[in-house]
Design goal:
By secondary structure, the chain is of the alpha/beta class. The chain contains 52 helices and 48 strands. Bound molecules: iron/sulfur cluster (SF4). Its cofactor is [4Fe-4S] cluster; siroheme.
Length: 1471
Amino acid sequence: MSVELALSAVARIAYLTSDVVVDSHPALPSISAFASVYSNLTKASRHRNTVLSAPFGSDPGSSILRNQSALTSFTTESHSQVVTRLVLHLAEISVLPVVLHLAVKDDLSDVLLLRSAVPYFLLSTTAQQAHDNALLAARLARQKRKAVVHVFYSSKDAELLEEIPEDKILPFLLAASHLASPSSSSGHVTPLNGHANGHNGVNGTNGVNGVNGVNGANGHTNGKALNGLVAADEDTTVALFKGYESAALDTLTLVKRSLRPFTTRGASDAQTTIILVGKTNFTAEVDNVTFISLSLLNPIPPSRLLNAIPETVTRVIVFEQVQRWTTKWTPIYLEVVSALQHRHAEQRPIVQSGILGEHVSLPDVLKLIQHASTTSPSTRLTLGSSPSPAAPLTNTPHVPKHEAAYTKILSHLFNERLDIANSPSLVPSQGDIATSPEFALGRVRGQLDQRAQLVAAVQELLQEPSLDKELHSLLGKWVLAKDDGAKSRSLGASIISALESTKLTHPAIARILSLRSQFPALSRWIIGSDAWSYDLGSSGLHHAIASGLNINILILDTLPYSARNSGDPHRRKRDVGLYAMNHGDTFVASVAVFSSYAQVLQSLLEADRYNGPSVVLAYLPYQSEDVPALNVLKETKLAVDAGYWPLYRWDPSKEKRGEEPFSLDSDAVKNDLKAFLDRQNHLSQLVRSTPQIASEIVSSLGENVKEARKNRAQQSYNDLLNSLDAPPLLVLYASDGGAAEKKAKRLANRAKARGLSTTIATLDSVTLESLAEEEHVAFVTSTAGQGEPPQNGRKFFKSLNAAALSGEQILKKVHYTVFAMGDSHYWPRPEDAHYYNKPGKDLDSRLEKLGAQRVADIGLGDDQDADGSETGYKVWEPLLWKALGVDSIEVTEAEPEPITNEHIKAASGYLRGTIAEGLQDTTTGALAVSDTQLTKFHGIYQQDDRDIREEREAQGVEPAYSFMIRVRMPGGVCKPDQWLQMDQIADEHGSGTFKITTRATFQFHGVIKRHLKPAIQDINRVLLDTLAACGDVNRNVICSSIPTMSKLHRQVFEFSKEVSEFLIPRTSAYHEIWLDKKLVAGDALKDKEPLYGEFYLPRKFKIAVAVPPTNDVDVFANDLGFIAIVGKDGELQGFNVAIGGGMGVTHGNKKTYPRTGSIIGFCTPEQGKHVAEKVIIVQRDNGNRADRKNARLKYTIDRMGLDVYKAEVEKLLGYVLEPARPYTFDRNVDDFGWHTGEDGKHHFMMFIENGRIQDEPGRDYKTGLREVAKVHKGNFRLTANQHLLVSDITDENLPQIKSLLSKYKLDNLAYSGLRLSSSACVAFPTCGLAMAESERYLPVLIDKVEKMCEANGLRNDAIVMRMTGCPNGCARPYVAEVAFVGKAPGTYSMLLGGGYYGQRLNKIYRESVSEPEILATLAPMIKRYALERLDGERFGDFTIRAGYISQTTEGKEWYDRMGGEGQYREIAAAA
Ligand code: SF4
């Protein structure tokens, strides 16, 4: 058996017998062994109860009291702190139906403390006994409504365990008792009267022996002895004991094993009795000795003991497994002594006590008997040896690995100045106490006293007139610099060596030398866990805070946000931050390293600088050491964003300087913190300094939202009243991409126009119960993934399916019809055809099954129809009107036309809209919906945190809105001062990190509304902007980074800039809104957009400039690509022009597809910008403005024909383009490593995984790049693969840059070829379109695929692997050799066969794969590639040659022959 056998058996019984289980967690990093059993049972068992976890350090007794039920169980692995805390509440608990299961290893010292305070105390020494006693305890506690302590050993012994099945447990608990309840404490209770069952030789058992039924007291002495002795038992003891016997008999009938209060073995005429309390391996018999093993430690009726101890005995030795008992006699020893007082004086044996070891041998027993007779009765004896006697003080406690995230920062910041006053390394020498705050405080106090003495001694010596000048100067300097970490140390060292060699004699010198260790000024820290915060007083935390000493306390709070409710809600730990702030003179900071690294650094430095106590509360959510960092990150984000863990700093010293002491570093603040700020009247100061912050803190956003909702509800109510006479219609929709939603909204509008009282909602917003009350319902649903319902309908489908199974006709009142939307060609295999419109069809049949009446046949919208789903819709809608009797109503008023982006653009006043007004509105974190379309043109996307969207919805507050800002930076080139500014903007306005995007520019996330304008202004301050970084215009023009070709790079970079400037929108709205420049006089808008016009382009437009042989910009993925043609003389001759590339696709919509650009000719550098302009004009005038999904240039070209399009462009140019010239690409990955350009300048291309610039523990890239930027004199080039080139480094600057790159590990390129060639878009949590993880997941997937590559010798082979969170394709997945495109959380389309240098599209290989399928698919493929590839053959080419996938020759054929070729297609079909 494993160590868990007894423990899991007890946990199982605790779970199955209780209504509430309170599980006490051990100190981290250990995790509760009980918890895993509970979590398995939650899934496997039908029994439902509440499992609460009591964190280590909390007060478990009060949790039990607050959670009383028919039976409450408490489970813990015994720890003195837990047991001590239980004692506090035992008096109250003892009269409740509670079982306290305590697992012990080898020592009962702690648990025996509880014995006298509870009515029942059971001890189990084997797993089987633990199982049976757990049942007995549950029955006893439930029936007698009394607390039972059940202590059991969790050991590694192998043994068999027979468990009672779950279905028998509840009947057992509820069944009537086999014994009548004790009527009262009569004293004459049948079992105890012992009807002389007699003495069964040495095997006599006591109590319920299961042999003779209710035997009551057996014994050596029969009735004769009992008559005199029962009087010795107190009434209460008798009553309790009878209760035990009754429950034990009931348990016996269930388990078919006897349960006895104690067992005896040995001779009935023995001289010695050894009473054993604890677990031992000794089972042999010894002449003249009777062994009594106790399993019921309370109550122990004296009569029972007397019965068990033969009258012949002259010596009784009570052995207990107590290694750390502090008083002379143990309670059980005293009970034995007291019981024996009932014997005649001359019959009374000597009673001795001793400590029982687990390993006892026969010689041990023999030696003991001999030894006992020769020693004084008061000497404590020992029997056997214990595997682990007293806990040795030699082990250094384990520090959980996640905590290194903070401890590393401390060592990094303070180096040798760091002194951790309660460091675990002190434990071996000082004992466990060394980690407690009291100890640390005492230590610091002592050290500070010593330092004060040192200062006094130095000052005394300074008074000495004969002191030599140099020493005087050193001492003087030290006094001045004594608080400076570095100076005080170096001056101290000089003073010590000067004093050691001085001839001067002065009493202060000896004192100074004896205090030499105090010369350096240290940064003193106490590090502890949140367990301290459960009891500020006894943990010593209060004393540290109140001490006034210059001490820093770092408290790690590890409770994950998502587990915050698993603890007893009434026993929350104290808010140490608030507590300390209330103290007045304590610096307090609340930080979270995985949310804002910069804020952690700032807080720790400020805490160190603060002259007084500082408390830094650090959030580090993890439940076990195995939790991956990604989870810690997610939990942190949730906690910070939801306001559960606000980031702030409170510096009382600022108040004295007239500054605001409170800085809120995150956007949400807790209510109690807000209340504190209000109470302290700091708010008025806040109002004075930053009115907008104050108003946001005071006026709760939530309140405003509620108010707005109330108004809206009132409005809806009024509308309802107005249309009461019309038949009601509820339109319910489920939609992922928005098409079904659009259709449902249009249907609702048309219904209103026909006088129907119409409401519209998503499927998931209704319950079956509320649906049952509706009269007419029209459903509209699209089809997701593998025929699944869309996301916002899944909950509803689940309950619908469950209800359909039950067969109840709960929807009889409902009249319904369904319109389903899907694509009949989406699934290439005939056997998958049933997925077509499956959700709609399922819905239709399930509703019917539930009794609803179909009023019109299901409508089927097929993307393959001539007019898409509209074809089927046109047939279906009239059926609905007919069924509702409104088909003859003439709709006179035009139905409200849906507002499209085209309307918004045209009505925006050249991109103004109401953005400026929206920015002023502090009641919401969002902008108006139409404005959010316009801000894209300004480089700004409104987003909300997807991780906490549901959470916030449940809280009734609006989503956590923030904005993404994208910089326009043509060619991806920036100066060091611009880099520094970006770094600062990320810290001050964004999420603390920033990203290099696939458009080779900077992107900031998490910018909240009030920070938008300052952030944009800061960007403009360094001569960059965000205008046209997104939106339906030409976006950032990108160009190859080509480190070695210096001159050429200058030319293509200048070309990119020129094209970008030439095509920039001319509106002055950007300057007006963001830069406060009133360029347009008065209110009359005089803006003009000569190129774009007021409608701008139908869709976005992207331009790239590539320099062969590198295609690092993926030129064919752009609407317009310029491929540089260089003459033999190395001069730029011009560009081949490629048009019509584009990535975006919509899942399941075959009208959408990716396309690679088509080359239409050659132009000179001078012609380039005009060619771009004309290509744009033709698209502007011919692009599809009615359907944004079909609006990109690629579709326009395919619709018009390439030749026609080209001719249109040439017509506008007034000349014909020259024929394209030859060129060769050979790669699209970046050229990593060092390069020297033709001009002798150096460049280093570094690998930044997915472009994320951030500091992580052990990888301070953001800091490192900031340091590089501070000294770098050249440029930075951002690449479209999201990496970074530190460029144009001079010889002179080279060593310094190299050393910084090395210091911050930025020069690390020791990655696999796969990783170096990988790329992922942002996706979750910020991208509103993400369907699956991308940036956060691809590195994890690569870890796994990399291993396959390594195993097949492909570590250094580049395989271009890309991932995006949705089919929009920001990371250009459709030209990757392998790609994964998100469909739903954890599910991706898998694509294969892209060209290695971006020349060929890939194709869908598998529609829906999750990680196991990805790995299972790739493993054999990679192996085959390693074995069978041709010389130089690339993975993408190989997958086509090997037949895994067919080649995509052009975008329009992208869907042809999807899903593999030949046998591979068959394999997929068979799967
Ligand atoms: S590909 Fe999709 S998920 Fe990824 S960033 Fe672009 S829009 Fe968002």
